[in-house]
Amino acid sequence: MLRVGQRYVRDDRTLTHLCLVSRALGAESIYLEDVEKDILGTLQGVNRTWGGGFSAVLGEPWRKVIRDAKKEGRAVVHLTMYGMPLQEKVEELRRQSKMLIVVGGPKVPGKVYHEADYNIAVTSQPHSEIAALAIVLHEVQGGEELKRSFGKSRLRILPSETGKRVVES
Amino acid sequence: MLRVGQRYVRDDRTLTHLCLVSRALGAESIYLEDVEKDILGTLQGVNRTWGGGFSAVLGEPWRKVIRDAKKEGRAVVHLTMYGMPLQEKVEELRRQSKMLIVVGGPKVPGKVYHEADYNIAVTSQPHSEIAALAIVLHEVQGGEELKRSFGKSRLRILPSETGKRVVES
After folding, report:
1. For B130-155, how does the pLDDT look when each residue is reduced to its tens digit (9 = 90+)?
2. Does the N-terminal or the C-terminal CB of chain B have fewer CB atoms within 10 Å?
3. B-chain residues within 8 Å CB-CB of A134?
């Protein structure tokens, strides 16, 4: 995951959501240009409590992140309401073995549209980059991400019909 | 859609995302207990520009909203990381013709778990109510919501491989 064009402060909670969604739905790491708050601490805490090794990388320029991803053979998928409908491209995306998903904030540079291998829209309606990311991660992994195990963790939820069941390990 | 247990101010942007995701992914309306900012104005503006008749209803107590939904024959689906995995319940949910989806904020009352017909988890990992809502709306509608038309609107996006194409009508 790469986050481009953030509006600091105002987007702070949005950023936390983007990080946690990326982690929960199977991404390895998120590249952030810069952040206000201690997002690294938050993510370390979540990994410690709930498992997995998701990481955030701060301060790398977006061009470098995209260039490096391409060298690694990753398809660069930019999410934007102006792009091609997800449902028309999803088969093609599923054939990619590695991916860098780019989520643009309100100030996303126009060049991102040209650097990306795909510009993908989750509806052509305005809504939420968090929701778009979730649906794309869900679709490209065919729902398998929902069954993922996060390995060793301090807490684990036992799914329940009506309450909250949490076990410590 | 029903939003319960909001934390005002701090959740303000989260709330805007929840409203816009509900609208873009096919919900009719959202019930909010109370709001800080002019969310009604925002939604009217979005409808005017991008079409559709999505609405927000303010100030109805959550118990009344759930009770009325049940009288209308709606299945009440509460989204929580402590619930049953979506993938185990999705077939059952798809058979429901009408639904009230309940999204709890951090202060969701425990009774909501018991009033709901279903408590559903999108992974048992902490992430985002915006992402959980998006994936549930997507799954229960089998992706059909992505093709939805919003009727008459001032602006319309023409999907594009690399740029931004918007037409006025």
Report:
1. 999 999 999 999 999 999 999 999 99
2. C
3. 128, 130-132, 134-135
